């Protein structure tokens, strides 16, 4: 029974960690090399794509999606999709896909340029080449060098509040169990003796 409990709680916390890792904003320092638009037919990986833009038809099986191609500081390529999140989940309330595409196109930089333009791309989601999953870019801003330090204050705040919430539930559950459940179990088991 101990193993079942360990597997259950281990699976539960891995799913919670995956949820936060996918949903919370991440920052990549990169050099944008291209921006483009591509017609996408949604398949089994459709849960990783945002819903259609606000004001667009919602029952389409394909649509045009903006993409941003970049190279990170380790010279590995990274492709970002650029879709509105609208009023849906995750709650980034992103409605400026076209503006972000224009900003990204304006920051294109070549590898061998004398002054390569580095940017911070704020995004959420994962990149999985096998399933054709792309992180969704939320914002792009220019930085002076690839050595800039970014402190994810929002992530720290959200995870701290979540940890406090979980701690509060645990404390209340232990108190409830000690005051209400354990005395009933003791009374019941004392009747056997």
Automatic annotation (TrEMBL):
InterPro entries: Phage_phiNM3_A0EWY4. It comes from the Bacteria. The chain crosses the membrane at residues 7-24, 150-169. The keyword Membrane applies. Pfam families: DUF1523 (PF07509). Keywords: Membrane, Transmembrane, Transmembrane helix. This is DUF1523 family protein. It comes from Roseovarius pelagicus.
């Amino acid at each position: 029974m101990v193993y079942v409990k360990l597997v259950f709680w281990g699976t539960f916390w891995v799913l919670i960690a995956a949820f936060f890792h996918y949903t919370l904003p991440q920052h990549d320092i990169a050099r944008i090399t291209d921006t483009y638009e591509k017609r996408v037919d949604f398949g089994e990986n459709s849960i990783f794509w945002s819903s259609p833009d606000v004001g667009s038809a919602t029952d389409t099986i394909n649509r045009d999606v903006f993409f941003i191609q970049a190279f990170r500081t380790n010279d590995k390529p990274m492709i970002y999709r650029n879709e509105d999140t609208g009023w849906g989940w995750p709650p980034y309330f992103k409605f400026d896909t076209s503006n972000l595409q224009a900003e990204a196109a304006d920051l294109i930089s070549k590898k061998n340029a004398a002054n390569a333009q580095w940017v911070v791309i704020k995004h959420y989601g994962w990149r999985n080449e096998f399933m054709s999953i792309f992180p969704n870019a939320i914002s792009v801003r220019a930085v002076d060098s690839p050595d800039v330090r970014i402190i994810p204050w929002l992530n720290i705040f959200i995870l701290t509040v979540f940890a406090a919430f979980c701690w509060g539930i645990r404390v209340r559950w232990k108190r409830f169990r000690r005051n209400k459940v354990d005395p009933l179990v003791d009374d019941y088991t004392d009747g056997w003796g």
